[in-house]
């Protein structure tokens, strides 16, 4: 979270402050660099950062590579609009739309909580049920902090699969973006993956097929210099001539020896694999080792009713690995991945829909929560909050919405799945070290997103000459 800290605070009168400190240092030097109280030690002063507005960016609408008439397949066009829910510790949340570019736009929404006496927090999420042409299904995503590094674990460029990386720059300076892409064969080397310029307060859409073709398992590491970026990935599937689902890949946790995917929906996975072109319809855990040593992985799978099992796997360095997860009963699961080396992870599942098609869901790993977290769950079918306790201590989590509060016991190593109000601000306390995610499950498909912890803010610092 440190990369977003700079956006949360601004130091007003910097030049004046520096001049005062330098002057103080000069005077102190004339007196043997010290004070009469503490001689021999440099004098300093405490600088309190001035609070600034808080910002997060929501993924925007579903995308297709054509206009309304089916022409111009090089430009992404927004399809419909998502439901958006927002929350803040400040007075209000302002919404605005980032501009598009020549590559199209998903019309991402910028959530801004204006600064008050202290720095506010802001959070949000989106969900969209879309059915237009080949873009059919349910997609959900978290609204995220701008950052200089995002891991997108998901996507495919096989025939009938369209994966689009969206790069939103909410800052006032150009962002220069590099995409490090890996697939089942290793690192992808292709022109155009580096030096992608995203103008201030705008979004650029980048088709993954421009760099890698006919690959069923991809991972993209997005890095930026200059302006900070909010990156998502959208995947749309067409199975022969039948729409096969749509979803948004949210950024996952940075490489670590422990990864937690807090909410994964399995719903008739066997039924989703019937018919033509369903080789990628089975549920999988996707792993990628960015280092040079193979990973020995233990996957712990738990449910809210106390059920669980473990799966052992190996992931080779530099190669994207899909671990099949067949033969599990329907339910909402959490995945805890323990690895011998740092790793990134995500999960994909597929479900039949009531209209005889299928939908896919991508579920990202999540970072641990802090003492207090605000969030909001966008209104969608079958929304549930999933809490995972990977710590060694039992926890009692309090979920507050307005005047209503609810306590949830989450014992060490367990998962709790609860119903929470949609489109309302939620405050989660007592969940320090726990991981949370939201899942959707309905007649039209499945989706989910990780709950983001509170953004770190700067505290007063001591400045010395």
What labels would you give this structure?
single chain, 465 residues, mainly beta, 2 domains, seven-stranded antiparallel sheet, five-stranded antiparallel sheet, 3 helices, 36 strands, 5% helix, 49% strand, globular, disordered N terminus
In short:
The chain is mostly beta strands.
Question: In words, what does this structure look like?
Answer:
The structure is a single chain. With 465 residues, this protein is mostly beta strands. It has two domains: 2-49, no CATH class; 54-366, no CATH class. 5% of the residues lie in helices and 49% in strands. The chain has helices at 2-5, 14-30, 269-272; strands at residues 9-10, 45-47, 50-51, 54-58, 62-64, 77-79, 83-88, 94-97, 109-113, 122-132, 135-142, 149-153, 161-169, 175-183, 186-187, 196-198, 202-207, 218-226, 230-239, 242-249, 256-266, 284-288, 295-303, 308-315, 320-324, 331-352, 358-364, 372-376, 384-388, 395-401, 404-410, 415-418, 425-429, 435-442, 445-450, 461-463. The two termini are 28 Å apart.
Count the E strands: 36
Low-pLDDT windows of residues: 1-37
Counted up, domains total 2
First-last Cα distance = 28 Å
Helix fraction bin: under 10%
Structural class: mainly beta
Shape: globular
Rg = 23 Å
Mean pLDDT: 89
Largest sheet: 7 strands, antiparallel
How many helices? The count is: 3
Tell me the strand percentage band: over 45%
Blueprint of the fold:
Elements: H1 2-5, E1 9-10, H2 14-30, E2 45-47, E3 50-51, E4 54-58, E5 62-64, E6 77-79, E7 83-88, E8 94-97, E9 109-113, E10 122-132, E11 135-142, E12 149-153, E13 161-169, E14 175-183, E15 186-187, E16 196-198, E17 202-207, E18 218-226, E19 230-239, E20 242-249, E21 256-266, H3 269-272, E22 284-288, E23 295-303, E24 308-315, E25 320-324, E26 331-352, E27 358-364, E28 372-376, E29 384-388, E30 395-401, E31 404-410, E32 415-418, E33 425-429, E34 435-442, E35 445-450, E36 461-463
Antiparallel strand pairs: 1-3, 2-36, 4-9, 5-6, 7-10, 8-9, 10-11, 12-18, 13-17, 13-19, 14-15, 14-16, 14-18, 19-20, 21-26, 22-25, 22-26, 23-24, 23-26, 26-27, 28-33, 29-32, 29-34, 30-31, 30-33, 34-35
């Amino acid at each position: 979270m440190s990369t977003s800290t700079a956006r949360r605070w601004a130091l007003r009168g910097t030049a004046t402050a520096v001049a005062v400190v330098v002057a103080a240092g000069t005077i102190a030097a004339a007196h043997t660099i010290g004070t009469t109280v503490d001689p021999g030690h440099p004098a300093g002063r405490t600088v309190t950062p001035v609070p600034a507005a808080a910002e997060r960016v929501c993924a925007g609408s579903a995308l297709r590579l054509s206009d309304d008439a089916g022409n111009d397949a090089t430009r992404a066009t927004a399809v419909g609009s998502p439901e958006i829910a927002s929350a803040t510790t400040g007075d209000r949340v302002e919404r605005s739309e980032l501009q598009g570019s020549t590559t199209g736009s998903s019309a991402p929404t910028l959530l801004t909580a204006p600064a008050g006496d202290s720095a506010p927090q802001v959070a949000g999420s989106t969900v969209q049920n879309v059915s237009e042409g080949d873009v059919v299904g349910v997609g959900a995503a978290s609204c995220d902090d701008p950052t200089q590094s995002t891991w997108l674990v998901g996507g495919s460029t096989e025939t009938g699969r369209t994966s689009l990386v969206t790069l939103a720059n909410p800052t006032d300076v150009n962002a220069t973006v590099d995409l490090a892409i890996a697939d089942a064969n290793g690192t992808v080397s292709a022109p155009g993956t580096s030096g992608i310029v995203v103008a201030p307060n705008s979004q650029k859409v980048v088709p993954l097929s421009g760099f890698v073709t006919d690959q069923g398992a991809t991972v993209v590491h997005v890095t930026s210099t200059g302006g900070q970026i909010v990156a998502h990935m959208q995947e749309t599937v067409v199975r022969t001539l039948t729409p096969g689902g749509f979803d948004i890949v949210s950024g996952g946790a940075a490489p670590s020896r422990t990864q937690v995917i807090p909410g994964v929906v399995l719903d008739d996975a066997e039924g989703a694999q019937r018919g033509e072109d369903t080789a990628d319809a089975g549920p999988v855990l996707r792993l990628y080792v960015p280092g040079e040593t193979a990973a020995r992985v233990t996957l712990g799978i738990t449910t809210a009713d106390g059920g669980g099992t473990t799966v052992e796997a190996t992931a080779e360095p530099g190669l994207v690995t899909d671990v099949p997860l067949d033969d599990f009963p329907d339910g909402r699961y959490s995945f805890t991945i323990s690895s011998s080396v740092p790793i990134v992870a995500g999960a994909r599942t597929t479900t039949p829909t009531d209209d005889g098609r299928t939908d896919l869901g991508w579920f990202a790993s999540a970072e641990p929560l802090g003492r207090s977290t605000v969030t909001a769950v966008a209104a969608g079918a079958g929304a549930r909050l999933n809490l995972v306790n990977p710590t060694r201590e039992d926890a009692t989590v309090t979920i507050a919405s307005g005047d209503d509060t609810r306590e949830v016991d989450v014992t060490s190593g367990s998962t709790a799945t609860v119903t929470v109000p949609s489109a309302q601000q939620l405050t989660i306390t007592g969940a320090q070290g726990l991981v949370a995610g939201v899942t959707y499950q309905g007649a039209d498909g499945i989706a989910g997103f990780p709950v983001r912890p509170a953004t770190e803010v700067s505290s007063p610092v001591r400045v010395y000459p």
